[in-house]
Amino acid sequence: MSTTTMTPANGVDRAALVRAAQGKPASPAAPAAGAQRVPMGIRTIAGPGAETTATPTPAQPDRSVERLLSVAAASGSARTRHLAAKISGLLEELTGRVEAEEAQRREREAAEAQRQELAEAEAQLARQLAEVRQKLRTTGRDTTAQPPRSRREGAEQRAAIRAWALANGHEISARGRISGEIVQAWAAATGSEVTR
Predict the structure, then answer these.
(1) How far is CA 69 from CA 6, 90, 96, in A?
(2) What is the sign, positive or negative, of the torsion defined by CA atoms of 11, 14, 15, 17?
(3) Tens place of pLDDT for every residue, the chain, 196 residues?
(4) Tally of helices (H runs) and strands (E runs) in the chain
């Protein structure tokens, strides 16, 4: 009966891997009493009632940009210092660009708000102008003025003036304009009001 010897590859014992894949302990020694065998690649998580000891996590170093640049600027390597100076310049340029874009955005928002205010004011003025025009239409002309006489009334008055003029010896044509003297004489004689 021959035995196969497995040599470690990349620092890993192949025999231990095979035993772990078969669910056997990684070492040939028997497992301790009550120990649970865990197949390789499966992680176990303790339940709520299990006693666990928290492994303290090491404090994470400060990796902020300002801290990194400060450390890099004090580095003994010229290349690191040069890279820190270059990044500092790029950060300043980026900050300037972001601030300029923010200023432009604020200006655009202010201009848009002003445009909306002007549009609302224009709409309000248009409504007021429409109301004023409507009032002018409904109010009409001066209410103290005499209402205009109809054509029929004017024609009747002219006919009466002509008849009076002929009856009183004035020369007047049957048609056309009646002279002002005849009209005044008619108004004085009859006590009528001239409304031609």
Answers:
(1) 50, 12, 18
(2) positive
(3) 445 555 555 555 667 666 766 777 656 555 555 555 555 555 555 555 555 555 556 666 667 888 888 888 888 889 999 998 999 999 899 999 999 999 999 999 999 999 999 999 999 999 999 999 888 888 765 555 555 556 677 788 888 888 888 888 887 877 778 888 888 888 888 777 766 5
(4) 5, 0
Report the amino acid identity of residue 78: A
For residue 144, give both structure tokens: 């103290």
| CB within 8 Å of 6: residues ≥ 6 apart | 13, 14, 15, 18
CA nearest to 184, candidates 83, 1, 170: 170
**Residue 87 CB neighbour total at 10 angstroms:** 15
| Amino acid type, 186 | W
* Conformational region of residue 13, where left means phi above 0, alpha means psi within -120 to 50, and beta covers everything else: beta
Q: Is 186 exposed, middle or buried (0-12, 13-18, 19+ CB in 10 A)?
A: buried
